[in-house]
Q: What sequence folds into this?
């Protein structure tokens, strides 16, 4: 029993934190959000460092590491709120790697690993999806409907950029007819994608918690730092409670993806529900701790709040995950009871 | 990361599981005294087989179990629905405190009877005027030759009616600042001057007691950790109180949650999406508690102390368990509140969870100040 990263994994986390602090600070986020354009050089740098292929098999040009390592990068990208197609590409890559045929893998994974021909994924209905992250720049789109998924080349799909409340990421409306089914383990691939997405939300929660605490130590009212008032300090304690709970659930999901797939379905549902709720509540709470300034365009906390809204809604919201947890648990109890 | 048990941990679990299966004492009898006697017999059984204090060092009769093994011990007892040993305060609090602060004579004298359950211990810390602000306690001890005479009142002393000894903190210096004037004693409960009165709680049961002391006598040899050092010694006890039980409590919550899930499934209520949603949220909280407790345990083993997650588990459990019990009585309907149902009683008992062993409000203060580094209110 060892619920901690390896030294190498800690090193990946530290390196990512340092790099993104330099390359994707709050000014860069603001610039990307207000300019409605990514800093292309950031994604180029991440690609050149091999981040895009971290969890993709070596035969397709990736580093062949696990979901745990990918999760670590996603958490740090969420912490930095990096504006890039990294997450969508990684999620699409997980779908193809774990549910695709050999031909599909050979066709798409090298471009996803190098970041030269990216992927994305979304839930769809009748071949169309209203809000798909980074679909416009993608080479291939995985559309999930119920228990099945279809792969559509960008060229064969109707893709129309849409604006959302989250200007730190680009989204598009996608509709397609036809496409190739992903023949493999769609549920398992989706569960891995949910874990990676959860990790981004853990990073968002961690960052906005730290912003709130820093502000609560500095900001004075009634001649007292507001963090000395229990109404504020207990709110901050609640942020730690929510963030650390989501972290426990998400890290376990990453471990299950790499080491014990029998636990993955339940672990991923728990991670996605916990991380979504934590990201929503902690970012909202951070705005509240910042008071009036937190409600201004000028403060940066709203970028995180907005990204959290979109992330939490992506790949099935909390209600769907909770229902899934109940069903999986009740089924396993019925099986154990019947055996 | 490796969230499986290694070979020796698995072997420990398998051996324990087999032993519990072969020696399970069965259902605890109704009634406070009957239940206590039953748990005392169970502790004797554990003691004779070498399972009573797995986390204690071998020199004191334990197994020198790792933190993981100690967690497994609590998990397995809870999973098998076997009772916790009667002298739980002795095993988790008094024993470890004496190992750190006790003299050789004290260790020699007290540890073995704690483990066997021959001598039961209770905890005399809280007072009517000193709850969360424990250091303001007023029970006083004055020298009388080679002895101390103590006078005062304690409250929430569970098991006092069965106890031979009490971990007793009293003020010995009224001029010193409040944290400095305290001394930690071992008080003999079987004497004139110690009166135990049962304290009936909202469930109707007298699980706790009040303690009234009128010139009760304590020999100087029963001071633990030196005169005036009582606050530091008491903190050792309190740290053990919060760390020890998380895994057993988590499994207890999981067992109740699974039972509820089965009851709701059998009655068709799981088809109600509102019920399925709330139940899912509770399973999520319960699993997060388990995972967070293991994260804290890994951090303690690797770095000597838990990280920020370590301060959260007691809060996670008390909140989760209260929500579970409230939801259970709501989802099962009014029959869960009728006399014969265990859910109604469990729901009432759960209200104490966020108060006992440190209120949630005090835990939040500790997190804000010590973990998040927020300033203290002046």
A:
């Amino acid at each position: 029993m060892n619920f901690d990263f390896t030294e190498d994994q800690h090193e990946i986390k530290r390196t990512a934190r340092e790099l993104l602090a330099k390359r994707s600070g709050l000014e860069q986020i603001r610039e990307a959000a207000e300019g409605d354009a990514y800093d292309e050089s950031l994604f180029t740098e991440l690609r050149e460092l091999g981040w895009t292929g971290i969890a993709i098999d070596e035969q397709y040009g990736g580093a062949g590491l696990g979901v745990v390592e990918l999760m670590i990068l996603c958490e740090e990208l969420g912490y930095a709120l990096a504006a890039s197609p990294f997450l969508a590409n990684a999620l699409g890559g997980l779908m193809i790697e774990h549910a695709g045929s050999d031909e599909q893998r050979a066709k798409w994974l090298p471009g996803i690993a190098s970041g030269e021909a990216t992927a994305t994924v979304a839930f769809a209905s009748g071949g169309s999806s209203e809000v798909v992250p980074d679909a416009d720049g993608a080479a291939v789109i995985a559309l999930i409907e119920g228990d099945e998924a279809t792969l559509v080349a960008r060229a064969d799909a109707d893709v129309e950029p849409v604006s959302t409340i989250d200007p730190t990421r680009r989204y598009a409306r996608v509709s397609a007819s036809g496409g190739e089914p992903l023949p493999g383990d769609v549920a398992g691939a989706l569960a891995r994608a949910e874990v990676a997405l959860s990790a981004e939300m853990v990073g968002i929660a961690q960052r906005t918690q730290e912003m709130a605490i820093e502000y609560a130590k500095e900001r004075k009212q009634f001649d007292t730092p507001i963090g000395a008032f229990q109404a504020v300090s207990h709110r901050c304690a609640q942020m730690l409670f929510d963030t650390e709970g989501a972290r426990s659930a998400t890290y376990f999901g990453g471990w299950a993806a790499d080491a014990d797939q029998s636990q993955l379905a339940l672990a991923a549902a728990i991670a996605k529900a916990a991380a979504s709720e934590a990201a929503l509540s902690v970012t909202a709470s951070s705005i509240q701790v910042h008071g009036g300034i937190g409600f201004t365009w000028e403060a940066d906390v709203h970028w995180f709040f907005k990204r959290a809204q979109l992330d939490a809604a992506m790949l099935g919201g909390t209600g769907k995950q909770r229902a899934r947890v109940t069903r999986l648990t009740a089924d396993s109890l019925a099986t154990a009871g019947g055996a | 990361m490796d969230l499986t048990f290694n070979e020796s941990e698995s072997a420990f679990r398998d051996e324990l599981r087999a032993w519990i299966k072969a020696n399970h004492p069965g259902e605890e009898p109704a009634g406070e005294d009957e239940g206590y006697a039953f748990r005392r017999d169970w502790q004797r059984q554990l003691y004779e087989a070498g399972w009573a204090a797995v986390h204690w060092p071998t020199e004191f009769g334990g197994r020198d179990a790792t933190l993981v093994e100690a967690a497994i011990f609590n998990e397995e007892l809870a999973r098998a629905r076997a009772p916790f040993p009667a002298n739980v305060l002795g095993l988790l609090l008094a024993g470890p405190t004496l190992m750190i602060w006790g003299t050789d004579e004290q260790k020699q004298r007290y540890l073995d009877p704690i483990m066997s359950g021959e001598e039961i211990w209770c905890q005399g810390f809280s007072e009517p005027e000193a709850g969360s602000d424990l250091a303001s306690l007023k029970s006083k001890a004055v020298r009388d030759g080679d002895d101390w005479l103590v006078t005062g009142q304690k409250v929430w002393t569970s098991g006092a009616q069965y106890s031979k000894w009490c971990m007793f903190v009293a003020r010995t210096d009224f001029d010193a600042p409040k944290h400095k004037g305290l001394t930690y004693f071992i008080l003999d409960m079987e004497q004139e001057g110690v009166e135990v009165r049962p304290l009936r709680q909202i469930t109707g049961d007298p699980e706790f007691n009040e303690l009234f002391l009128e010139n009760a006598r304590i020999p100087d040899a029963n001071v633990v950790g030196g005169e005036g050092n009582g606050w530091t010694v008491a903190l050792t006890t309190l740290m053990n109180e919060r760390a020890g039980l998380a895994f057993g409590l988590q499994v207890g919550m999981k067992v109740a949650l699974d039972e509820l899930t089965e009851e709701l499934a059998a009655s068709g209520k799981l088809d109600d999406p509102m019920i399925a949603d709330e139940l899912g949220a509770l399973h999520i909280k319960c699993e997060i508690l388990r995972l967070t407790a293991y994260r804290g345990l890994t951090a303690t083993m690797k770095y000597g102390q838990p990280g920020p997650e370590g301060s959260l588990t007691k809060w996670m459990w008390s909140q989760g368990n209260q929500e579970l019990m409230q939801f259970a009585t709501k989802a099962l309907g009014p029959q869960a509140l009728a006399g014969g149902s265990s859910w109604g009683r469990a729901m009432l008992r759960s209200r104490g969870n966020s108060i006992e062993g440190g209120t949630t409000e005090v835990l939040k203060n500790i997190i804000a100040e010590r973990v998040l580094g927020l300033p203290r209110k002046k």
